[in-house]
């Protein structure tokens, strides 16, 4: 039985908007994943990591998924690898990052996967696109819209662009 999950996608190396659109298509291509909502694309200042990074291109998607959390994590990581993601510097520049933000309000704390995402409630680059995609969304009982309004990095959102066209 599929459950609702929210994923955050980001990129700041290469053709970022094209990479995000292709990553959404890669997710949609899996037989156990259905894309149900797609946020607009946010252009944002980097948060953390080394100084001098290019701006990020960020978006959030909602999916219906019929796989266990670790299987979804593995699939998301395979898509990152397909797009040449490397993990050399924490919060460093990347071609693609796919974070699992929430899966059916599941709470878990594992070294490989913590749900909900431990920093999502304070990241405007996740919260603002999510709130624009789903104004009624909640994260751990709090309004995503209200969390976005008070997020420390809210001033780092530079602009919004239309959501990518999703082709599986």
UniProtKB/TrEMBL annotation:
The keyword Signal does not apply. Its EC number is 2.7.6.3. It comes from the Bacteria. Residues 90-101 form the 7,8-dihydro-6-hydroxymethylpterin-pyrophosphokinase domain. It holds the Pfam family HPPK. InterPro entries: Hppk, Hppk_sf. This is 2-amino-4-hydroxy-6-hydroxymethyldihydropteridine diphosphokinase. PROSITE patterns: HPPK. It comes from Rothia endophytica.
């Amino acid at each position: 039985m599929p459950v609702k999950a929210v994923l955050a996608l980001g990129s700041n190396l290469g053709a970022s908007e094209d990479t995000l659109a292709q990553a959404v298509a890669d997710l949609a291509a899996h037989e156990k994943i259905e894309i149900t909502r797609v946020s607009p694309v946010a252009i944002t200042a980097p948060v953390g990591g080394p100084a001098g990074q290019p701006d990020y291109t960020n978006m959030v998607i909602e999916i219906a998924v019929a796989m266990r959390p670790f299987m979804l994590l593995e699939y998301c990581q395979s898509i990152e690898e397909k797009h040449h993601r490397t993990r050399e510097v924490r919060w460093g520049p990347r071609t693609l990052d796919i974070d699992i933000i929430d899966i059916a309000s599941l709470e878990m704390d594992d070294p490989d996967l913590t749900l909900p995402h431990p920093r999502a409630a304070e990241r405007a680059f996740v919260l603002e696109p999510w709130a624009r995609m789903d104004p009624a969304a909640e994260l751990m009982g709090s309004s995503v819209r209200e969390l976005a309004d008070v997020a420390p990095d809210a001033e780092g959102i530079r602009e919004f662009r239309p959501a990518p066209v999703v082709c599986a």
